[in-house]
Design a protein that fits this description.
Low-confidence stretches: 481-485
CATH class of the largest domain: Alpha Beta
Radius of gyration: 23 Å
Strand order of the largest sheet: 4-5-8-9
Shape: globular
CATH superfamily of the largest domain: Metal-dependent hydrolases
Number of helices: 20
CATH architecture of the largest domain: Alpha-Beta Barrel
């Protein structure tokens, strides 16, 4: 029997029934990813397995480095096959790391290859996968259609022209592709030169002069409106923590003038200016009916020598250990008091924050919106079986799992769509185990609807992206159906 088989991760018959009858058939609504819109617009065909599988994948690079692989086989100039072979030799050492599961799930689902990858199978797998990449339907469009991705949201800077999104819409691709607004650069005032270069770029794309804070805010709002007109309904922020300091309007004006003059800010000025802007972004999102995503807690670019050599996003990050709740509560409460609280998803990176985050969200629910504030799916270092189980358990115990908007890829790789299958199998295994232990009822219609909603329907209903697949509301669970008869 192949390692990746119909029962993979499904330990009970109930888990298998729930997965195959209710989860496996659901399309994918990938509301947060980092796929390059240009590759989708060009319907890019990958030259080989290294390009589609290893380039940009810092998960694999980290494992290879830990296995003693020289950097030239990770991010360097080694031959593509040499890089792939270095990865193949590393795979047997990834036992009990989620990479072992993901690697073989991806080989199976993309290429129908069921052999275990190691240095002995590498030549054959390289040849067979590359033949399919060159002659088959595994272009970017083909991949999205193969995995039934009905909608996805990329991650885009406010200064992006979104021309690639226009080309995608004109391409006839059945997957709906939307931008998501990621204004992190507006908060990066620690380097006045880089900040001012970005502000100048913002001025150019917004076709305006930015001489003061009012002009800056108007330009950001112009871009927010531009994104909205092109289907954007989500924003995203990658933060260490939420702001804990908030500048007044006058203080923010002085800070903006100072940094535009090329002067360095104090740490308090930087923090308070960020807080001021985050309140502005919250108001914009609330006004437009968007969902704001807060990715909190990453300690990024820890190895400064490698940052200088390779740049950011190359695998030198880790889970951060900062207090999150006081600042997050303060931010949400300020938005709530001003009647500017949008729908929000909060993602934690430290598993110690699972229960604090899961318990916090119900302090800000309301307005008749199911799951208005979401505890986001296990993210980055936590998007593996144990991390998913911990997040699902905390959410279940403190809020309503049935209203959860489910999994995202959060990936730059077109090889990551089996992550949704991995999540769905984990979810069904948890539910199936509890049915067979007597902790949940043996009511397949009730449980099946919940699983279908978590896998797909809840996200469609929550985000309400224009032109997205029709699913006006999640299907009611069994007890709700009984009451409506």
């Amino acid at each position: 029997m192949p390692f990746i088989n119909e029962s993979f991760l499904l330990k009970t018959s109930t888990a298998r029934d729930l997965y195959h009858a209710h989860a496996a058939q659901q399309p994918i609504f990938d509301y947060h990813c980092h796929l390059p819109p240009k590759d989708i617009a060009n319907n890019h065909r990958f030259r080989d397995l290294t390009e589609i599988w290893l380039e940009g994948d810092h998960y694999k690079w980290r494992a290879m480095r830990a296995n003693g692989v020289p950097e030239k086989y990770c991010t360097g100039a080694a031959d593509p096959y040499e890089k792939f072979f270095a990865w193949a030799r590393t795979v047997p050492y990834t036992l009990r790391n989620p990479l072992y599961h993901w690697t073989h799930l991806e080989l199976s689902r993309y290429f129908g290859i069921d052999e275990l990858l190691d240095e002995s199978t590498a030549p054959s797998i390289w040849k067979r996968a590359n033949e399919q990449l060159q002659s088959g339907g595994l272009t970017t469009h083909g991949i999205l259609e193969k995995f039934h991705v009905t909608a996805l949201c990329t991650t885009d800077d406010p200064t992006d022209s979104l021309e690639d999104h226009e080309r995608i819409r004109a391409s006839g691709l059945s997957t709906q592709v939307y931008p998501a607004f990621r204004p992190d650069a507006a908060l990066r005032t620690s380097d006045p030169s880089a900040f001012n270069a970005w502000v100048d770029k913002l001025a150019a794309i917004a076709d305006t002069e930015i001489a003061d804070l009012s002009h800056f805010l108007e330009a950001l709002e112009t871009r927010h409106d531009f994104f909205h007109e092109r289907g954007c309904r989500l924003s995203d922020h990658g933060l260490v923590t939420c702001p804990a300091e908030y500048a007044t309007r006058n203080e923010a004006e002085s800070t903006f003038e100072k940094v535009r003059a090329g002067k360095s800010l104090t740490q308090l000025e930087e923090a308070a200016f960020s807080g001021f802007l985050m309140l502005c972004f919250g108001e914009l999102d609330a006004r437009r009916g968007w969902t704001k995503q807060l990715h909190l807690g990453a300690a990024r670019n820890n190895n400064t020598r490698m940052l200088a050599t390779l740049g950011k996003d190359t695998g030198f990050d880790c889970i951060g250990d900062w207090p999150q709740i006081p600042a997050l509560v303060g931010y949400l409460d300020r938005l709530e008091r001003a009647n500017h609280l949008p729908k929000i998803i909060v993602y934690n990176l430290n598993p110690a924050d699972n229960y604090p985050f899961a318990s916090l969200i119900n302090s800000f629910q309301g307005d008749g919106i199911p799951g208005r504030i979401q505890f986001g799916t296990a993210w980055w270092f936590l998007d593996q079986k144990e991390g998913m189980e911990l997040q699902i358990n905390a959410l279940s115990n403190c809020s309503l799992l049935s209203r959860f908007v489910g999994m995202v890829t959060d990936s730059r790789s077109f090889m990551s769509y089996p992550r949704h299958e991995y999540f769905r199998r984990t979810l069904c295994n948890m539910i199936g185990n509890e049915v067979e232990s007597g902790e949940l009822p043996q009511d397949e219609p009730l449980l099946g609807k919940m699983i279908e909603n978590i896998c797909y329907n809840n996200a469609v209903a929550h985000f309400q992206l224009p032109g997205s697949p029709a699913a006006a509301a999640p299907q009611l669970l069994g007890s709700d159906i009984a009451r409506t008869r």
